[in-house]
Design goal:
GO terms for molecular function: transmembrane transporter activity. This is MFS transporter. Keywords: Membrane, Transmembrane, Transmembrane helix, Transport. InterPro entries: MFS, MFS_dom, MFS_spinster-like, MFS_trans_sf. The protein is mainly α. Helix content is about 80%, strand content about 0%. The longest helix has about 35 residues. The N terminus and C terminus are likely disordered. It has a single domain, classed as MFS general substrate transporter like domains (Growth Hormone, Chain: A, Up-down Bundle), CATH 1.20.1250. The two termini are about 30 Å apart. α1 packs antiparallel against α6. The relative contact order is 0.16.
Length: about 425
Amino acid sequence: MMHGLAKAPMSTKRAGFMLGLMTLIYVLNYIDRQIITILQEPIKHEFGLADWQLGVLTGAAISLFYTAASLPIARWIDRGVNRVKLIASITALWSLLTALCGLSQSFIQFVIGRMGVGVAEAGFAPAAHSLLSDMFPERRRPMAMALLALGIPSGIMLGLSIGGTVAQWYNWRVALFIVGLPGLLVALIYYLVAREPERGASEHYPIATADGPEGLIAAMKILVRRPAYVQVLLATGTSALVSTGMLAWTPSFLIRAHGLTLQEAGIGLGIVTGIAGLLGTSLGGWQATKFGAKGMYAMLPIPIVALGLTIPTFITTLFIADGTTALWVSIIPISMTYVWSAPSIALVQNLAPVRIRATASAIYMIIANVVGMAAGPMFTGILSDILTRRLGSEAEGLRWAMTITAALMVWAMVHWTLAMRKLRAAQDRGELVVAA
């Protein structure tokens, strides 16, 4: 077992091996995080919940506590904690808590369990992004981030497929046991074989060996003085709000509007999300690597176009009469919602000084989770409750709530465009966008 610091840039072979393990952990992360979306109908009926309460379970319960824990953990990471040991520990913790959620006897108990999952998951992205930035040089960083991000659609695909099938044949409690417990074994393997790289080992410029700025406020001041970083955060928040608000409710829509069973919705949407996520994330990483050589701004035109295509294509799927056809057509808009992910993560890491990269990543993930995972499903759920009372149908109320949510993607496009302009202006002025 090796946890000492690498004294030189990590070899390509070792870096690739560690990236593969972290991607597997990210798969488990998203299985545990997203499985509730396919289980929410039986959970709703067992506990007698309203749609806004389902929005709390699928979003706010995990996201708000994820937010509360993210920055303290990120500052701990930036101050030199062993990131490999941290990832192994929190992976074991969130996996155990996911399984324990299957023992919940009330809505409150379930919410408390999901809060714990949120706290445990809060440290993964800052630690993983910081690790990858030390393992891969700037020119290879977007693709490394894209490969890590493939854990998101893979986790969603497996979570929906396994969750829907197990809940159909057994119940939702067994589904949580089955997806939670394997994480304990993966955490142990990662702890035994992964190695901590030296901070800043992949950079082509000298890196100060001193600690980063003292305190969270000092670190945040450095970041907010970078207009492009701020715009990337705003763009991420609005993109996540709309994307999560749409996708979190798609299983329920297929069940309510088209009469699909849990298994049909879970397996079908799992396959579709997996294919779409792999396509969108790979496109985002490839184009960022290819065009990013011209400058950071060049990573963004294709994601902006992709988000624009999301609006008409997603709304179209909501009004297709046949559920199976709607499911397969949704590959197009779902894939478009993944294109911005890898470029945005790479930009955050490239714009942040080495010693506060975990903090920069934590702020990014807080925005994505609070505005996206927490507010997104809740916003659509509240709209669904309001429109259901007006229209007299749960299916129609949800259909129009998701339509309104999709239209808000224009807001995200505005912020991505502003981020692109800020990056281009900084480059034209000859500023060092990535600072040591």
